[in-house]
Amino acid sequence: MYFLNNLGTLLIGYIFYFLSICLHLFLDFFIDYSPRIAKFQISLLDTLYYKSLLSMMMESYAIVAVCVMINLNYIKFISYGTTVQSIICFMALTVLILFPLFIVTYLRKAFEPGSGGILHRFEPCFDELEMKKGR
């Protein structure tokens, strides 16, 4: 009953997300040589750190919370593997607590005049609200 085991295939999504961040950091070295790479890196930046991260966190929040709660019953530091699983569980618990607080405080700016860029970046938070453009 370890945290990473309970995540199942969601762990693959988090691994791909981490690899996409590595790709973004790798492309930083080549943006001066090609305008296509620079354009791709800018679109990757906008999607990667805002839209993809938010939609993945919003959609998998309950699954991660259940996995953390299951693993909190099995916290042990008797071997290297259980110690790593327990530390990752505590890190995920911290993210679960801080994520809603961060979103709420940051999205308060989205409802100020002239904040269209924030609404665009945090689009997954507003998907269910059916907000009309131009209001």
What does this structure look like?
The structure is a single chain. With 135 residues, the protein is mainly α. It has a domain at 3-96. The chain is 73% helix and 0% strand. The protein is built from 6 helices and no strands. The protein has helices at 3-7, 10-27, 35-72, 80-107, 116-121, 123-126. Helix 2 runs antiparallel to helix 3 and helix 3 crosses helix 4 (80-107). The chain is flat, with a radius of gyration of 18 Å.
Short recap of the structure:
With 135 residues, the protein is mainly α.
List the helices and strands and how they pair.
Layout: H1 3-7, H2 10-27, H3 35-72, H4 80-107, H5 116-121, H6 123-126
Low-confidence stretches: none
> What percentage of amino acids are in beta strands?
under 5%
- What integer is the average pLDDT? 80
Helix content: over 70%
Please write the string of helix (H) and strand (E) elements: HHHHHH
Helical stretch count?
A: 6
- The total of beta strands comes to 0
Structural class comes to mainly alpha
| First and last CA, distance | 49 Å
Question: What does the largest sheet look like?
Answer: none
Give the radius of gyration: 18 Å
Shape: flat
